[in-house]
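Objective 1b. Sequence-to-structure analysis of UBN2_3 domain-containing protein.
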Amino acid sequence: MKLENFDGSDFNAWRHKMNFGMQLLKIYYTIEEEKPNFEEEAVKEKAYWDRDDDFCRSYLLNCLSNHLADVYGQNTIAKVVWDALEQQYKNEKKLPKTHLIDKFLDMRFEDGKEILPQVKELENLVLKLN
């Protein structure tokens, strides 16, 4: 399941889709809880958790715009990536207008994509700026 990349707007809708995708892939638990301290004997369990965490982190970064993936890709644990995104974007109505202006200035129409959805996205951005 491939989602539209998150670019800094409509976080709550994107977050719900991501939650569904991570639950479907059975990797949601890696962002739900802190990394456990595994006993030395629990090598297999640690390997499973590390694999799922790496997969979840990659899934999260793959569903971000290139710019945001660069910013949040420095985190090595999925929960840290998720928590940082929530802290930054959960209350998107409180985002400064400078973020919206930057997004407006970076807006480009893409060849090969339908024009109407791109125009709608531009209209939504203009409405948020007013």
